[in-house]
Design a protein that fits this description.
Layout (H helix, E strand, L loop, with lengths): L1 H11 L7 E6 L3 E7 L5 H5 L4 H13 L6 E7 L1
Protein name: RNA-binding protein KhpA
Function: A probable RNA chaperone. Forms a complex with KhpB which binds to cellular RNA and controls its expression. Plays a role in peptidoglycan (PG) homeostasis and cell length regulation.
GO cellular component, one term: cytoplasm
């Protein structure tokens, strides 16, 4: 899952070497924190959050086999 988020994010930004994905896990959910170069924040979020929403949808769909809920947070 972490690799999926990394590949998608690197394809969207101008500074792919600065894409970082960290994960936190507890008993009910896994949270992935995506951080990118400050100049690329707009490219990851998109107009009215459409790209961020699409990224979350893809990750949620890929996580159907997981027994835990999966979240993606975009952090600066």
């Amino acid at each position: 899952m972490k690799d999926l988020i990394t590949v998608i994010a690197q394809a969207l930004v101008d500074h792919p070497e600065e894409v970082r994905v960290a994960s936190r896990e507890n008993e009910r959910e896994i949270t992935f924190e995506l951080s990118v170069h400050p100049d690329d924040m707009g490219k990851i979020i998109g107009k009215q959050g459409r790209i961020a929403k699409a990224l979350r949808t893809v990750v949620t769909s890929a996580a159907v086999k997981e027994t835990k809920r999966v979240n993606v947070e975009i952090v600066s």
